[in-house]
Amino acid sequence: MKIAIVTDSTAYIPKNVREQLEIEMIPLNVIFGTESYQEEIELTIEEFYEKVRHSTELPKTSQPAIGLFEQTYRKLKDKGYEAVISIHLSSGISGTYQASRTAADMVEGITVYSYDSEISCMAQGFYVIEAAQMAKQGKKVFEILARLDEIKNSMVAYFMVDDLSHLQRGGRLSGAQALIGSLLQVKPILHFENTKIVPFEKIRTQKKALKRILELFDEDANTGVLIVASVIHANRPETAEQIKNQIQENYPNVEISISYFGPVIGTHLGEGALGLVWYKK
Fold first, then answer.
1. What number is the average pLDDT over the span 113-134?
2. Which residue has the higher pLDDT, 218 or 162?
3. Which helix (H) or strand (E) covers residue 113, if one does?
4. β partners of residue 274
5. Whole-number pLDDT of residue 25
6. Which of 59, 136, 162, 207 has its C-alpha lying 20 to 30 A from 172's C-alpha?
7. Are the C-beta atoms of residues 244 and 217 closer than 8 Å to each other?
8. Alpha-carbon distance 84 to 188, whole Å?
9. DSSP 170
10. Cα(86)–Cα(69) distance, rounded to whole angstroms?
11. What's the angle, vertex CA 267, arms to CA 262 and CA 269, rounded to 5?
12. Using CA atoms, how far apart are residues 165 and 112, in angstroms rounded to an integer?
């Protein structure tokens, strides 16, 4: 069976990797005033932060239109694909996954399996890359979906932001949580729980928060199993590089990369956010 792999732009998989693995990407949108941009296509991460600095109001985001999903699935059917595994960012923070499911029912002649990664960014990207590699190896749909569930059982992601008001304004964190964080000047470590972003631990400084994330990482990495990890940053390349180098030096069993919080996720986290994600290979 010929299986296509589809994802959305918030997986932030480099274009060359998408092309090599034949991954279809459906973009979400970032809106500045009356102007809407498809992230990763019409708006790069560099252009996004430049626009934010010169904008009087914060941008908004929107999920892809259902028609864009339908069009993509039809195109894949016409290319001879018999099934699609469509992997998307967490249903708790976006309607993208639901749009995929709705469009799946509108296209005949191809079976679409929509998959809720329950997370975003390179954590979501890891699911997509493994699925695409398996599809190329000729694995069956049920084998790929079983592997995705297996990854989900070991996937861990922690991140921290400079300013909680971005998450609160976008409805991704409750006003009370953001207000308490701002009043106490804490830098909470955040994570995904039941598809939503929630505080994991409240910590006073960013330095201590990063130290704590690395301690949590150490608990898994010290077991010696092969781990795939990524440092994710919102315009903090030097810090990301330092963390990557530190992990590389200390853990020969860890395959580590650097990724980024792109325009859509960057809108909700704000510049300066940092994260670390990993799973057991």
1. 98
2. 218
3. strand 111-116
4. 160, 233
5. 98
6. 207
7. no
8. 38
9. T
10. 10
11. 90
12. 37
